Amino acid sequence: MMRAGNPGDAVRLPGGEADLPEAPYLLLTPGPLTTTKTVKASMLRDWCTWDRDYNGLVQSVRERLVELAAPGGAREFTAVLMQGSGTFAVESAVGTFLPREGGKLAVLCNGAYGERIARIAEVLGIELALLRSEETEPADAEALARLLEADPAITHVAAVHCETTTGMLNPVRDIAAAAKRYGRTVIIDAMSSFGGIPLDMRELGIDVLVSSSNKCIQGVPGFGFVIARRGLLAGCRGHARSHALDLFDQWETMERHGGKWRFTSPTHVVRAFDQALQELEAEGGPAARHARYLESHRTLVDGMEALGFLPLLPEALRSPFITTFRYPASDGFDFDEWYLRLKAAGFVIYPGKLSSADTFRIGTIGEVYPEDMRRLTEAVKRSRFWLEAGASEEDVPEHSPVR
Ligand SMILES: *Cc1c(COP(=O)(O)O)cnc(C)c1O
């Protein structure tokens, strides 16, 4: 018998973890990603959405998120969970922090996720100043400083930490410093980096940070979260352009009613996220996770380079979360076909999203290890499109058992 226990109690399957079906492949994608069996197992229990047990779990998740984002900063910072994928959380933040009158948002943009923030602002009717860089160039903090100098109407600055389009790690420290020099509010989409790299909002000068359940914390998809300065959020009543995405209203409800969500909450996902947070801590926190991702990333790049694949970005601009590679030079390269072969071999990779070059991406976040990257590059080596003459169907491995 399982106890209907407290947050943190392990869920036991009747036959142990072995009862969970084997996954047919590893997800080497930037979310949803490969999760541990224990994270998946934690969802095998139904939770009601409103009572003390569940709401206590929500409060504990919120507190731990603040501690991760701004260690020791519980007085100044607060966390709000929002149903939906990460974009819903970004939209709720943009639509709630920008006032209805007199707000203007500068967006630093060097990929699809920066463009998405700009698109959100556009749809919400928020005045916008777009600062674009090439997809292969980091967001430009000096250009931001010049823009802020020239345009005092700008009230908020938004940027993407890891631009998942390329895997570029943007210089958020410099961006936030430039914005702070001009007294502007800083909103960072840290979707694909948060939890996988040590970071302190106070030290960096970030006012609002957005991420989601299914990235480096290694939970499953279903909600996003916003960590923000309390004083700032407290002044946002009535700003939102959407009722369902009103971050202030969601926050007020969670604060007043001890972890209650306004509408049906993704209870299983929150339970899985609690487990994922425990596993992040057990691994040694974001610093240890970062070290693992880095080692996986290096193993991946070394292996792929040895096979002649070129990373899109120079090393200094890469993140350890996801890596973009150029298509191989060979004429007959057919990504879709190759993708299916790698999938049959037990690895799901990610298509490219670049306007300027033919690329594909491989994620190193989730429950994957350097050893998996070695197995992947073995599979790539055996895959037919890489082999020159003499390759045959038999060279493609049938199916590699995955963790
Ligand atoms: C994943 C991601 C998002 C959110 O995407 P969803 O599909 O809505 O979860 C936003 N920004 C970045 C940088 C991301 O990597």
Describe this structure as you would to a colleague.
The protein has 403 residues and is α/β, with parallel strands linked by helices. The protein has a domain at 46-283: Aspartate Aminotransferase, domain 2, CATH 3.40.640. Helix content is 37%, strand content 15%. The protein has helices at 37-41, 52-69, 86-97, 112-123, 141-150, 172-181, 201-204, 230-234, 247-256, 267-283, 285-306, 335-344, 370-382; strands at residues 26-27, 77-83, 104-109, 127-132, 156-160, 162-163, 168-169, 185-189, 208-212, 223-229, 322-326, 347-348, 350-351, 359-363. The strands form four sheets. It has a seven-stranded mixed β-sheet, with helices on both faces. The protein has a three-stranded antiparallel β-sheet with strand order 11-14-13, with no helix packed on it. Strands 1-12 form a two-stranded parallel sheet. The two termini are 27 Å apart. The relative contact order is 0.16. Residues 30-31, 85-87, 113, 160, 164, 189, 191-192, 212 line the site of pyridoxal-5'-phosphate. Substrate binds at residue 361. Belongs to the class-V pyridoxal-phosphate-dependent aminotransferase family. PhnW subfamily.
Q: How far apart, in Å, are the first and last alpha carbons?
A: 27 Å
Uncertain residue ranges: 1-11, 395-403
- Described by the principal axes of the CA atoms, the overall outline is globular
Helix content: 25-40%
CATH architectural name of the domain at 46-283: 3-Layer(aba) Sandwich
The fraction of residues in strands falls at: 15-25%
Bound molecules: pyridoxal-5'-phosphate
Assigned CATH superfamily of the domain at 46-283: Type I PLP-dependent aspartate aminotransferase-like (Major domain)
* Strand arrangement across the biggest beta sheet: 2-10-9-8-5-3-4
Reported for the largest beta sheet, the result is: 7 strands, mixed
What Rg is obtained from the alpha carbons, in whole angstroms?
A: 22 Å
Briefly note the CATH topology name of the domain at 46-283: Aspartate Aminotransferase, domain 2
**How many helical stretches?**
13
GO molecular function, one term: 2-aminoethylphosphonate-pyruvate transaminase activity
Pfam families: Aminotran_5 (PF00266)
EC number: 2.6.1.37
Keywords: Aminotransferase, Pyridoxal phosphate, Pyruvate, Transferase
